[in-house]
Amino acid sequence: MNTKRGLCFVLAALLACVEAPAVLDNEGDPCRTLERNCVGDHTLLRCEAEQWTSTSCDEICAATGPGLTSLGCEPKGINEDDCACAPPPGGCEPGAASCASEDQLDLCTLDWEWTTLECDEGLISLGCVEGSEGAACSCSAEGSSCTDELPRCVDEETLAHCEAGTWTYRDCSEECGGSEAKCDPSGSDGPSCECG
Fold it and tell me: What is the pTM of this model?
């Protein structure tokens, strides 16, 4: 019993002497992860050439796009810290969109500038539509030409099929005689209306 206690005491003493490894998260230290960390309000520490390098958010925003200014470093959680950049005066956030008119879409380019697109280019335009997820040109292929293409589901209740060289839309509820119906994109013979 005493031997076991003595052994436990020696083991505990040895473990107490073991030092924890040094945390290597200072500029110039070798990287152990690919994390990006905020160091202060306006500096980002990131792994470059296998060592930690600090870069000011002003530099990062200037390299991201023309006329961008830094809003500072934003802690976002593990592996996600990053610099926030403000668009140039009159600029926008890439990917943002809004309807300029019934048939035109304003879209923010990767250069942080607005460009206007015509909705009637390509398929048959249903115009610019604003929704909960933003704005987009709504298009339809109905009436446009096709060549022996397979049917496809337009939405949950509409099937498009190529008939006599023209895309034709079928309302599945009409095809099913008013009973519960849906367009099944994974039918055994390809997309088709499935009656409930």
Answer: 0.45
